[in-house]
Structures are given as structure tokens and as C-alpha cells.
UniProtKB/TrEMBL annotation:
This is dTTP/UTP pyrophosphatase. The record marks R16, T74, Q158 as: Important for substrate specificity. SUPFAM superfamilies: ITPase-like. InterPro entries: ITPase-like_fam, Maf-like. It is found in: Cytoplasm. It catalyses: dTTP + H2O = dTMP + diphosphate + H(+); N(7)-methyl-GTP + H2O = N(7)-methyl-GMP + diphosphate + H(+); UTP + H2O = UMP + diphosphate + H(+). The active site is at D73. One of its GO terms (molecular function) is nucleoside triphosphate diphosphatase activity. Belongs to the Maf family. YceF subfamily. It comes from the Bacteria. Nucleoside triphosphate pyrophosphatase that hydrolyzes 7-methyl-GTP (m(7)GTP). May have a dual role in cell division arrest and in preventing the incorporation of modified nucleotides into cellular nucleic acids. Nucleoside triphosphate pyrophosphatase that hydrolyzes dTTP and UTP. May have a dual role in cell division arrest and in preventing the incorporation of modified nucleotides into cellular nucleic acids. GO terms for cellular component: cytoplasm. Its EC number is 3.6.1.9.
Amino acid sequence: MLKINKTIVLASTSPRRQNLLKQLGLNFIVHPSGIEENLSQASSPEEYVLTLSRKKAIEVAKNYNDALIISADTIVVLDGEIINKPKDPDEARQMLKKLSGKTHKVYTGFTILDTKTSKIYSDFEVTDVKFRELEDDEIEQYIATGSPFDKAGAYGIQDDYGAVFVERINGCFYNVVGFPLTKFYLAMKKFLSDD
């Protein structure tokens, strides 16, 4: 387990990220960054998630003198197109139809920032996700639950009906949930031991 003797701040309101950090036994407070999750000038999905996770951490860090800030950003990428969270049912429908029967990539970038020393570390994970062919009524029923609207790619692999859309994955499951738990844990161990 990680032993951290300072305030930990999660720069995210995502209940999934909160649950994953709790799995590691971490006590933390939640302080969302409030920054716009859009980065049109990013040259690659990796740059997109790394830059946004860093921006979120740096924004929240302004409020704390001695804390560890943890931030993350998750996107879905299909054929080079970045797919974020849907704004409305029509956009959710379009996203799910695009993903139907295809393999997409889920990228999550994360950042750890020590506000006392200004030490910062960022990394990312990528996972391949294969959707089965979705039926129109399945898409409509899922949209009616309201679940797609706070999720990149308009679906969740955990805890809801979106799980049955996924035929298989190649890579870290938790990355698809929204936080690459093993990679983060190892990064945090190294980050703390390097002090």
C-alpha cells in the first residue's frame, strides 16, 4: 500500500476515478479543475491526454501549498478521431453507432504533482476495445438511462449496461474505466521514493 503523509487532491469529479483511488486505500479530497476538456491543437491522442491531465493538475495546484495533486483525462479514439463525452442524446447515438462492430482505443493520461516541490510526472496508457454490432434499440435503451453523458465515447465498461457492448479488450481494463490503476500505482511508488 502507498503511505502518503500529505493531503491528496483528486482533480476530478469522476465517481469511477474516486472508486479506483479508494481501491488503493488512498484518502483524498476532490477538487475539480474546471478547465475546458477540449484541445484542438494536440498533434496526437497521447499529447491530448497528457497535456489535459497536466493542465488540470496545475490549475488545482494553485489552491494548495503542500499537497499531492492527481489528475487524469480519458478519451476514445476511432480511426484517428478523438471522441469525447457526448453533449446530448443525438451525439451519444452517433458515437455508439460509430463504435458499433469496430475496435477503438481508449487513452488515459494522468499527472502527479507535488505542490510543495513543484515536482510533476505524467504518463498515459492505451487499451484496445472491440465492440460487437449494436442494435438500434439497445443504443436507445442505453441513452434513456442517462449513463452515456459523462463518459468518453458515450459508454461505460463498468457498472452499467454499456458493459455488454464490449466483445473484448486488449490492455488494462481499469484504463477503460478511466484510470490505469497499475501504471499509476507504480508511478506513484517511484514518485514518492524519488524524494
